[in-house]
Specification:
6 strands; three-stranded antiparallel beta sheet; mainly alpha; 324 residues
């Protein structure tokens, strides 16, 4: 990979590390790489790198940073920074920029999953995740880097969640429960992870834990975002309440009192929980209406930022969570 942004910013030329010193040149290059093959206006560069209080000489400084970048990239085939009347454009092969490759593999994985090719989709997702070797833009110090790093991290979690969905479809719920439990602690507002955990616990026969998991997710979403769970998590919860609990096979027992019908008892419990949940929702809406005239909170859809769109070839270690 020639340009890496999914970790510390690095530039390589046929395995040789290309050095670019200085916070500002590195920040400007990172911004141009994130917008590779597109024109980036000078005003956008100023806002992104210098913030809302740039010096009076900022346009001259932008020209200086571009000159530093051009000297650094000189000799890299197919890479150049072009000057336009309103800004700059970095021309480079997207296949050499890890962010572009990550997004391409994510799109490829979704297309394969949509056609039922789960194994191929999972491999595409894993290849994408291996490109993350640390916090995105980890050593770029600029105002835009915080927002962009969060966006790139959210895209990684989205792909990770989609991969987990494929693993669940393959019946790997038992082994996924510890991983999902850890992930919802690190990403408590990422709703698809909660949905996967509810489903995994349900399939593992741990229904009471699944109910508690849903209730915790609902509380977090309401307290932090003021929103109710979205349709996918809600449907997983309704399926949980309506389903009969799995009855494990048991050895023959001596004759005695008639055994309890576990399926009927489970169904009765599910119906009771469902009714209590509906009553709780109705009471909450009434309280809101009486106190402040507020409407019921909007339902939350996917908490992920929709991802936009190679395997590591330079020996970089994957992100710890990817390797998990």
């Amino acid at each position: 990979m020639r340009f890496r942004l999914l970790g510390p910013l690095t530039i390589t030329d046929e395995g040789r590390r290309v050095r670019l010193d200085g916070n500002r040149p590195r920040a400007v290059l990172a911004l141009l790489l994130l917008n590779a093959n597109s024109l980036v206006p000078v005003d956008q560069i100023i806002d992104a790198v210098w913030g809302d209080r740039p010096p009076r000489t900022v346009r001259t400084q932008v020209q200086g940073q571009i000159s530093v970048i051009r000297r650094c990239l000189r000799g890299l085939p197919g890479v150049e920074v072009r000057t336009h009347s309103t800004g700059y454009l970095l021309r480079a092969d997207p296949g050499g920029i890890d962010v572009a490759v990550f997004r391409h593999l994510a799109r490829q994985g979704r297309a394969l999953a949509a056609t039922g090719r789960r194994d191929a989709a999972a491999e595409a997702y894993r290849s994408a995740l291996r490109l993350h070797i640390g916090p995105p833009l980890g050593d770029v110090d600029a105002p835009f880097a915080v927002t962009e790093a969060a966006r790139l991290a959210e895209e990684r979690i989205g792909v990770k969640s989609e991969l987990i969905g494929l693993d669940l479809a393959d019946g790997r719920h038992h082994e996924l429960i510890p991983k999902l439990t850890a992930m919802v602690e690190r990403h408590p507002l990422h709703e698809p992870l909660w949905r996967h955990l509810v489903v995994a616990l349900h399939r593992a026969g741990r229904r009471s834990e699944a109910v508690s998991c849903y209730r915790r997710a609902r509380m977090l979403l309401r307290d932090e975002l003021g929103l109710d769970p979205g349709p996918e998590l809600s449907l997983a919860y309704q399926a949980l309440l309506r389903a009969e609990p799995p009855v494990p096979a048991a050895p023959p027992v001596p004759a005695g009192p008639a055994p309890i019908d576990a399926g009927r008892a489970g169904a009765g419990l599910a119906e009771t929980l469902l009714r209590l949940d509906e009553i709780e929702r109705m009471l909450r809406d009434i309280r809101r209406h009486l106190i402040d005239g507020g409407e019921p909170a909007a339902r939350l859809g996917s908490a992920t930022t929709p991802p936009a769109d190679r395997l590591n070839s330079d020996g970089a270690a994957p992100h710890p969570e990817v390797a998990a």
